[in-house]
């Protein structure tokens, strides 16, 4: 294996589900696992089979699936104090669940040994060695997560090192140093990994994000010698989350020159991140690096003018490398370049020298000042451009409408829309009911337009937002 190759370990399905608001069914976990497998992730941690029925069901189902790149991994802990590994229910569950790889954690910090486990340093080392040796004797690949390693090393380096020495002697293939509390800073991570790497060649990093250094700490560990990186997709996880693989993968591959996955797989990073977010029912931050909707979006007129001359002026990579795309936004900050870009994108003519171009920019600024937004309203912007330049637009004209809300005795609110509309010179009058005034108006409009424009039946509202434009005016706003 090349020294520039990094193995990727995803724990979205285990550590990620410990994040607040994240709950995945077995079907969800299988869908996410297949997304990760297609991306080229090397290890997918499916859960803790010794702890709950859902994870046992996942591993049972996973055995019936074909995995192209990933090794399905089960998670657990070392055996209990005073108990032999082969008698430990948790470890026996790892063997029987059918996973190819077992990842177990043990204590590296003597404070945890005494306080959490309430045992001796020697017994803790025995538990680590015995557990790994048992799993190896059952034919499993073993990854050892040295929990709280960085805190333990800074408190008692000799003991922290002794725990991972025991794991190596027992046959663990990877020793993963965990910043479990997420409080270590990159310079300390680099120093400690570099020191440990001198005697422990197969090192990994598992970083949490409590200081927002999860990605930085993982990169520092790799540069200090780690070749195995653990994290979650979209950074989900307990408390402030785990190191975000969505940022780590392109940083390792595009910035530092390591190899994790193929360039073709990297080009599916954005779609993978968004699909996993959708399955997990989470809204991704629009400014998420590399894959966010705003990661390559340009709003300021000066920026857009430069980007249109050459993307490198304000883009650190070609967005297509990670499957994203360049976007230009139109707002009160827009200049002529923004409108030229959007008009070209819409296939509309746009003349710099035309006085109406300046009028259009001023109209947008005035409308935005009143509370309108055009960033996510390309259709409204297109209509505004067409209207300004006298381009043919009207496919119908709404002459007038009336909305009636009637509350019946059964506490049901009935919404009714009465619509007068002109389509191709023909006046039409429709009435429709709906679940609220907007729904009623939509039904009335469709009733008038569908006979002439039947493709409207394929157009549906999928999202919207309501803004309070002037909070000082309360409901009058």
Quick structural gist:
The chain has 477 residues and is α/β, with parallel strands linked by helices. The chain contains 17 helices and 13 strands. Helix 1 (26-39) runs antiparallel to helix 12 (269-279), helix 8 runs parallel beside helix 9 (214-223) and helix 13 packs across helix 14 (336-346).
Description:
The chain is α/β, with parallel strands linked by helices and about 475 residues long. The chain has 17 helices and 13 strands. Strands 1-2-3-4-5-6-7-8 form an eight-stranded parallel beta barrel, surrounded by seven helices. Strands 11-12-13 form a three-stranded antiparallel β-sheet, covered by helices on one side. A two-stranded parallel ribbon has the order 9-10. The longest helix has 17 residues, at about 120-135. The protein starts with 6 loop residues before the first strand and ends in a 28-residue tail after the last helix. The model has no long low-confidence stretch (mean pLDDT about 90).
- Poorly predicted sequence stretches spanning 5 or more consecutive residues: none
The largest beta-sheet arranges its strands as 1-2-3-4-5-6-7-8
Helix content: 25-40%
Beta content: 15-25%
Radius of gyration: 29 Å
Structural class call reads alpha/beta
The quaternary organization reads as: single chain
Mean pLDDT: 90
Shape: elongated
Number of helices: 17
Query: Using DSSP, what is the number of strands?
Result: 13
Distance N to C terminus: 64 Å
Major β-sheet, in short?
A: 8 strands, parallel, barrel
Order of SSEs: EHEHEHEHHEHHEHEHEHHHEHEHHHEEEH
């Amino acid at each position: 294996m090349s020294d520039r190759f990094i193995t990727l370990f995803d724990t979205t399905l285990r550590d990620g589900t410990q994040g607040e608001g994240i709950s995945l069914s077995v079907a969800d976990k299988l869908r996410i696992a297949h997304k990760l497998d297609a991306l080229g992730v090397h290890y997918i941690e499916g859960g803790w089979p010794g702890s709950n029925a859902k994870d046992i069901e996942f591993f049972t189902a996973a055995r019936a699936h074909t995995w192209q790149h990933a090794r399905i991994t089960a998670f657990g802990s070392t055996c209990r104090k005073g108990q032999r590994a082969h008698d430990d229910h948790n470890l026996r569950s790892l063997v029987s669940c059918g996973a190819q790889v077992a990842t177990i954690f043990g204590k590296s910090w003597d404070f945890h040994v005494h306080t959490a486990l309430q045992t001796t340093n020697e017994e803790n080392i025995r538990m680590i060695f015995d557990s790994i040796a048992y799993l190896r004797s059952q034919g499993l690949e073993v990854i050892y997560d040295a929990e709280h390693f960085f805190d333990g090393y800074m408190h008692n380096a000799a003991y922290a090192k002794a725990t991972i020495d025991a794991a190596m002697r027992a046959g663990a293939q990877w020793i993963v140093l965990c910043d479990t509390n997420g409080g270590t800073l990159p310079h300390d991570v680099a120093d400690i990994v570099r020191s440990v790497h001198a005697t422990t060649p197969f090192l990994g990093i598992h970083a949490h994000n409590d200081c927002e250094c999860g990605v930085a700490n993982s990169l520092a560990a790799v540069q200090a010698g780690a070749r195995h990186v653990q994290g979650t997709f979209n950074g989900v996880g307990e408390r402030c989350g785990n190191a975000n693989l969505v940022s780590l993968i392109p940083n390792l591959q595009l910035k530092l020159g390591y190899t994790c996955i193929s360039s073709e797989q990297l080009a599916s990073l954005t779609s993978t991140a968004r699909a996993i977010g959708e399955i997990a029912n989470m809204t991704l931050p629009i400014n998420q690096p590399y894959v966010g909707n705003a990661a390559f979006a340009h709003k300021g007129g000066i920026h857009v003018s430069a980007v249109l001359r050459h993307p490198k002026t304000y883009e650190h990579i070609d967005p297509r490398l990670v499957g994203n795309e360049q976007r230009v936004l139109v707002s009160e900050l827009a200049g002529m370049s923004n409108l030229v870009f959007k008009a070209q994108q819409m296939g509309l003519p746009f003349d710099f020298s035309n006085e109406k171009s300046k009028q259009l920019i001023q109209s947008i600024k005035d409308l935005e000042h009143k509370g309108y937004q055009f960033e996510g309203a390309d259709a409204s912007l297109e209509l505004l451009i067409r209207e300004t330049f006298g381009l043919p637009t009207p496919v119908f004209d709404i002459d007038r409408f009336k909305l009636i809300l009637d509350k019946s005795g059964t506490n049901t609110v009935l919404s009714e829309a009465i619509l007068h509309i002109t389509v191709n010179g023909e006046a039409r009058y429709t009435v429709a009911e709906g679940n609220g005034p907007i729904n009623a108006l939509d039904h009335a409009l469709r009733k008038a337009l569908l006979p002439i424009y039947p493709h409207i039946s394929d157009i549906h509202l999928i999202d919207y937002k309501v803004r309070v434009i002037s909070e000082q005016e309360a409901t009058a706003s």
